[in-house]
Amino acid sequence: MIVDGMIFLFLAGCGVTDAGIKQNVEEKLNSVPYMQNVSVIVQQGVATISGICNDTACKSNCENLARHVDGVKSVINKLTIAPVPIQASIIYQPDEMLSLGVTDAVKHLDSVDARVNNGIIVLNGPIKKRELPKLMEKLHSLTPVKIENNLTIR
Question: Does 34 share its domain with 56?
Answer without folding.
Answer: yes
